[in-house]
């Protein structure tokens, strides 16, 4: 049986008291590993290690930090196939997606290794001749990072990359479901020669860990990716110590398909995007608004393609979509479908759990879901697409923005005027037109409204771990 240990102060160790918890394969429901369950003593050791690690790492030159990150990148690349197999085993997504995710993780880390050397300050114009005024950027301090189960490599990689590039130390708590991938990434940094205490890994009960870490005076910055509900709890804890936070929370992304688009091509591209990671993506397209003239053609092509998806274990090369990551998602999606149908929505495809071991669910398409239905109000975070027609631009802008979320938004049109107007009208942090890619290493990913604030990736993703200090120097 695989075992995922804690990594504290440069050492792999069992939890104090020896407790551990089971990790399941969502394609079979079987226990495939156990993860050490951190006790309070372990968390305090990790905090002390991160405090010392910060004092070491902040003094390492950005060029040397960059070299360690690059070395870890080389090791992850060499181990990519093995890590992808672990990722699929503990999370469920197809092997092709797992390898793709590791590719993105590597690209992000490489980009941050380069950006490490660019934390530039600024010299300001002085008001008097004997004063020099300049701004310097410095690492903010030890970081508590919380990563989710939907991208077990990419999200830890982004947080670790930004923090280490800036000169911060990190305590990472990955999601309970996916400790093995995070441990493989941490192992690469260990093997790359990262000094002890700079990166620490803990597993256990999320609420216990986040409360202990965020309340500690050691931690200066919180980075969380997960649900809006948990983000609000962590922000409340961060507020007690007035600590900086990056919150990458949920989304409920709209897609506006205008009537100049090819309805069948647009529908096929949309199903491919929706089925990525079985819809368990914060930027997953969910609310589809289709201009009335092409509505029926789009709807029929979408539903047919959804029914044709080959759903199966992630390690079967024939599978186009894997299982959901945990049993909670099945319950949530089932409740959303029942609620929507009860309120008059029409089921066009799917709708049910697949009768086999593991957490498989059909790609589900609903039409005309009322605004007060659960599926419209809460993030489905699963293989659920909601379709409806629209007539005017003003009407669709209002409908697309009628949600507390504001992460990603999409439009499909060949008319530049429509694309520009729609991109500017969406209340969202990231927009894609005629494609579903909203994140690259150089571009900041972040939301507005209740989807959170702050950025990961890009120059903003390095700045997230830096403070700006203003220095006034009067010379004799
Ligand atoms: P959840 O809200 O219980 O947990 C979401 C994540 O937060 C998990 O990774 C979990 O480990 C972590 N978490 C939970 N309580 C925590 C706490 N007190 N302190 C620190 N971390 C904590 O929900 P879930 O059932 O695991 O996931 C479903 C919901 O989570 C979805 O509806 C979706 O909104 C959200 N989610 C979002 C993302 C994203 O990329 N933004 C990723 C995963 C999950």
Helix fraction bin: 25-40%
The major beta sheet can be summarized as:
7 strands, mixed
Q: State the total count of DSSP E strands.
A: 21
Distance between the termini: 69 Å
Side by side, the strands of the main sheet go: 15-16-17-14-13-18-19
Low-confidence stretches: none
Explain what you see:
Keywords: Oxidoreductase. It is a single chain. The chain has 476 residues and is an alpha/beta fold. 39% of the residues lie in helices and 21% in strands. It contains 15 helices and 21 strands. It has a seven-stranded mixed sheet, with helices on both faces. Helix 5 (154-166) links the parallel strand 8 and strand 9 (170-173). The N and C termini lie far apart (69 Å). Bound molecules: nicotinamide-adenine-dinucleotide. Nicotinamide-adenine-dinucleotide binds next to helix 7 and helix 8.
Keywords:
476 residues, alpha/beta, six-stranded mixed sheet, 21 strands, globular, binds nicotinamide-adenine-dinucleotide, Ald_DH_N, Ald_DH/histidinol_DH, Aldehyde_DH_dom, oxidoreductase, oxidoreductase activity
Structure described in brief:
It comes from Shinella pollutisoli. Keywords: Oxidoreductase. By secondary structure, the protein is of the alpha/beta class.
